[in-house]
Amino acid sequence: MTKQRELILNILKQSDRHLTADEIFFLAKLKMPSIAMATIYNNLNAMNEAGMINRLHIDGVADCFDKITAPHDHLLCDRCGKITDIRLPALADELERELGTEIEDYELTVHYICPECRRAPKRRQQEQ
Ligand SMILES: [Zn+2]
Ligand SMILES: [Zn+2]
Q1: What domains appear along the chain, each with residue ranges and CATH number?
Q2: Is-contact 36 24, C-beta < 8 A?
Q3: What global pTM score does this model have?
Q4: CA 84 to centroid of ligand 1, rounded, Å
């Protein structure tokens, strides 16, 4: 593994959330000032294809990268844009039962207002 790839992987592993390529670039530059954006993209694409990380695409939100590659779904806060993991292991069974056939895959994004935003309803919208 190249030093660059190791750095990118560590950044994702150390983060407790999903990171966009821009965020990874910013964090990588702190450790390796010479690293180029193209290097970030190339490594993210290669690691995604190798199944080491998972690219997450949600309409209206920048693609982000997920260190968790096991199947899981996502909650998106419509107020602050935060993405949170959710596991719904019974859902695939439910879908298959309803359809009467096996499913290959599904993508689910649940839109909601996260607990932090709900606690502070009057606060101005956070900058993105
Ligand atoms: Zn929120
Ligand atoms: Zn996730």
Answers
A1: 3-66 (1.10.10.10), 73-119 (3.30.1490.190)
A2: no
A3: 0.81
A4: 10
